[in-house]
Design a protein that fits this description.
The chain has about 180 residues and is mainly β. The chain has one domain: Jelly Rolls (Sandwich). The protein contains 1 helix and 15 strands, in the order βββαββββββββββββ. It has a 6-stranded antiparallel β-sheet, with no helix packed on it. Strands 10-9-12 form a 3-stranded antiparallel β-sheet, with no helix packed on it. The radius of gyration is 16 Å and the shape is globular. The mean pLDDT is about 95.
């Protein structure tokens, strides 16, 4: 009987090691309308990578799980920190777990009724994202923020549900840290 070597994760860097790694980079040009300061957004190069996602290849089927890592770069658009687009799941009842690996930031959790919860993300933090909750990672640090994630492969991503109004809180840079600003 042969012994195989499974994929692995480097908890210090948040990087996955496997032969068939699925990778996607999201550039600033794909995030139009996400940041509050449109003039600051337009002043930055569109090819600036804001975040990357790495995933193990998985079959999308009932009962299967995805495993991936989101890497959000350090930076700002105006005074607003780099962040992921954020989403509900297409299968909105599906939950997810995030695990902080590298860096520091925030996880914005927004229920369908608009209520918001914010959690600190740091190496070793564990975050349960229940069904019916939109979620977004925000990098508030000076280096990359990486968070591991496990979610049902059937969950999907629904970005359109937040397109018109977005999240009800923004994370702005402030002397020595950040401040949360409610949006109208």
């Amino acid at each position: 009987m042969d012994v195989s070597t499974p994929p692995s994760i480097n908890y210090v860097t948040g990087k996955i090691s496997t032969e068939n790694l699925v990778e996607k980079a999201t550039q600033l040009s794909a995030l139009n309308g996400i940041f509050a300061n449109q003039a600051a957004y337009e002043s930055l190069p569109g090819n600036t990578v804001v975040y990357r996602v790495e995933m193990l290849p998985t079959e999308s089927a009932e009962g299967e799980l995805n495993f991936g890592v989101s890497h959000v770069e350090a930076g700002c658009v105006g005074d607003e920190f780099f962040m992921t687009r954020g989403h509900f799941h297409e299968r909105i009842e599906q939950a997810e777990y995030y695990f902080g690996s590298v860096g520091e930031g925030l996880l914005i959790l927004q229920a369908q009724n608009g209520s918001v919860t914010v959690e600190k993300v740091f190496p070793g933090s564990i975050h349960h994202i229940g069904g019916f909750i939109a979620h977004r990672l925000v990098n508030t640090g000076d280096s990359r923020l990486s968070a591991l994630a496990v979610w049902p492969s059937i969950a999907g991503h629904n970005y359109d549900a937040l397109k018109e109004k977005g999240f009800n809180v923004r994370v702005m840079k402030e002397e020595g840290g950040f401040k949360l600003v409610r949006t109208p």
